[in-house]
Amino acid sequence: MVPAAIEAYAEALGRVGNPSSLHTAGRAARALVEESRERIGSALRARPSEVVFTSGGTEADNLAIKGTHWARTAVEPGRRRIVASGIEHHAVLDPIEHLVETGTADVTWLEPDRCGHIGVEDLGRVLTLWAAEVSLVSVMWANNEVGTVQPIGDLAAVARAHGIPIHSDAVQAVGHLPVDFAASGLDLMTVSAHKLGGPVGVGALVARREARLVPLAHGGGQERQVRSGTLDAAGVHAFAVALDQAVAVRELEAKRLGDLRDRLVERAMGLGLGISVSGCWHPGDLGGRLPGNAHLLVPDAEGDSLLYLLDAAGVEVSTGSACQAGVPRPSHVLLAMGYSEREARGALRVSLGHTSTDADVDAFLAVLPGVVERARRAASRS
Ligand code: PLP
Known about the structure:
3-stranded antiparallel β-sheet, alpha/beta, binds pyridoxal-5'-phosphate, 382 residues, 12 helices, 44% helix
C-alpha cells in the first residue's frame, strides 16, 4: 500500500458506524463512502452511481460474468453464449467454465496472436456468426502475466455495434494506464484496490446504469441491490486515496517503471543465457505493455526452480503458471499465445512497483546467472 492509503485506512478504521445506519455515526460513515465513490468515479471517468463496491477483483469479475449472463438468459433463454479471451485471469475464466459445466452457458474463446493481442476482426467475425446467441463479451484490459494491453475501445465498439454488453477486467490497467470508462465504450469494468496501492479485499465493478445484473448474494440490498453486505467504509476510503494518488503520478511513474523494465529486460537478454522476452516487445513501449511488467523466458529451466532460487537470494518474482495439487502447469496465457509447453515452463514474471529502484534491478541481475545455472542443473537431473 502507498503510505497515504495506509494512513487514511488506519484513521478510518478507528471510526464507528455502519454506512446503512441512520444515526450520526452511520451517516458519517455513509458520507465517507459517498465521497470515496465520487473520487473513484472521477478518477475512472465514470459516474459515481456507476461504481458498485465489491470485495475485490474476483468478486467484481464474477458479478459481471454471472450477473449479466443470468440477467440476459432470464429474458432471452437463447442467449447462452459468452465470448471471452483465452488469456483471462482465473477470476473470469473460472466463472465462465462453471456456467458451462453446469449446463447454463456455451463459450467461444478468442485466441490471441503471438504478441498476446486479441484481434478486433476476430471479435467481429465471432459476433457476426453468433450475435443472436451471445449474452456477453469479456476481454481483459491488460494481462496480468505478460502485461499486454488490449485495444479495448475498438473491441467495445464492435460489441456495441452488435448490441452486446462488454466487460473488461481492468485490474492490471487502472492506475498504470490511462483508463476512461465513459470513453471506453465498455458496459462493465473490474477494478481492484490492491493493484494500485490500496488495501486487499476491496474493489469495484463499474457498471453503466443500464447494465442488468442478477446479484451473486442476497441480503440487505446495498449497492443498487446488486451487492448486498455491509460496506467497508475504511476500505473504500483507502481505495479512493490510493487511486487518486496513482492517477496523479501515473505518467511520471509509468515512465520511471518503463525505464527500469527496459533496463532489466535488455540486460537479462544480454547475459548470454538465451533469455528472451515473451511476445512482442520494444524498449520505451508504455502503452502496448504494462510499464511495470517484465516477462522473461528462460530456456531449459523450470519457472518454479527459478522462483525458489531467486527467493532464497532475496528476489521475489512469480512464474505466472498455475500450480494445482502440487503439479506445476505451464501458463494458459503462454500456451494460447502459441508457445510450446517446454518454452512456457521457464516463464518468469518480474513485477516492478512504486518501491522498485535501480538497485533492485541490479540486485536481480547480479544473482540471475547463478540462479539460472542451478535451475538448469536441476532440470537436467529430472
Ligand atoms: N483480475 C486480474 C487481471 C488480476 O491480476 C487479479 C489479481 O491478481 C484479479 C482479477 C483478482 O483480483 P482480487 O485479488 O482483488 O480478487
